[in-house]
């Protein structure tokens, strides 16, 4: 399973490095979201600091939808899914590989977005460790649920419009918990984010386990 996961993740990442869709399209879109919200909030520092955590996760969520759509589109060409099945790859390994590739792309994107939040919103980070851990765990959860719902919608002609409708409501706990943990990381009482961090951990664990179990049947159904 882990060998197949590395193979699939390497394949998806090599495709992305050659096409640079995430770098040239998704990343500018996410940064543009932060810039537009900064203009909308005005020059007052107070509202910008308060809104920064939520806006970061909104931008990440939108970027995750685009990244998952791209990951799903890689397999949508004629015969690609049949080729994966014929190769004898473990479905759980395929799920973990595609999840890992999406997560790595989002982590790189989040590094740019974090710099944008610090630059545009003037926030001060008091607990960088909590911020980093929350971002990694939240990203793992988003990548897992996105890959799962991407497989669910992959066989449909309307998958580009259906995927956001499926993914965004389910990913709402990540938006909520991630925002609360980031607010705690910006404040002096970092322990206030511990319950929300546990929620992120549970969300990621549940969808990673669920994906390992049901990704194979979803592939067969699509």
Description:
With 222 residues, the chain is an all-alpha fold. 85% of the residues lie in helices and 0% in strands. The mean pLDDT is 83. It contains nine helices and no strands. It is globular, with a radius of gyration of 18 Å.
Question: What's the SSE blueprint?
Answer:
Layout: H1 2-19, H2 21-41, H3 45-74, H4 80-86, H5 91-121, H6 128-153, H7 159-170, H8 172-186, H9 194-221
Total strands: 0
Return residue spans where pLDDT drops below 50 for at least 5 consecutive residues.
none
Strand content: under 5%
How many domain modules?
1
Task: Provide the residue-averaged pLDDT.
Answer: 83
Tally the helices: what do you get?
9
Structure classification: mainly alpha
Shape descriptor: globular
Tell me the radius of gyration. Answer: 18 Å
Helix content: over 70%
Q: Main β-sheet, in a few words? A: none
**N-to-C SSE string, H for helix and E for strand:** HHHHHHHHH
First CA to last CA: what distance? 21 Å
């Amino acid at each position: 399973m882990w060998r197949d996961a590395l193979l699939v993740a390497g394949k998806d990442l090599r495709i992305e490095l050659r096409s640079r869709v995430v770098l040239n399209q998704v990343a500018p879109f996410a940064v543009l979201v932060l810039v537009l919200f900064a203009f909308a909030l005005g020059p007052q520092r107070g509202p910008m600091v308060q809104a920064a955590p939520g806006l970061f996760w909104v931008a990440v969520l939108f970027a995750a939808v685009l990244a998952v759509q791209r990951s799903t589109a890689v397999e949508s060409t004629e015969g690609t899914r049949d080729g994966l099945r014929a190769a004898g790859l473990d479905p759980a390994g395929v799920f973990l590989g595609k999840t890992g590739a999406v997560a790595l792309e989002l982590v790189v994107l989040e590094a740019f977005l974090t710099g944008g939040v610090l630059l545009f919103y003037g926030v001060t980070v008091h607990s960088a460790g909590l911020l980093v851990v929350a971002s990694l765990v939240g990203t793992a959860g988003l990548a897992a649920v996105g890959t799962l719902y991407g497989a669910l919608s992959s066989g449909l002609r309307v998958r580009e419009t259906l995927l956001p409708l499926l993914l965004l409501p389910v990913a709402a706990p990540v938006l909520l918990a991630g925002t609360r943990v980031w607010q705690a990381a910006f404040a002096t009482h970092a322990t206030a984010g511990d319950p929300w961090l546990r929620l992120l951990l549970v969300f990621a664990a549940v969808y990673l386990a669920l994906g390992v179990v049901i990704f194979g049947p979803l592939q067969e159904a699509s």
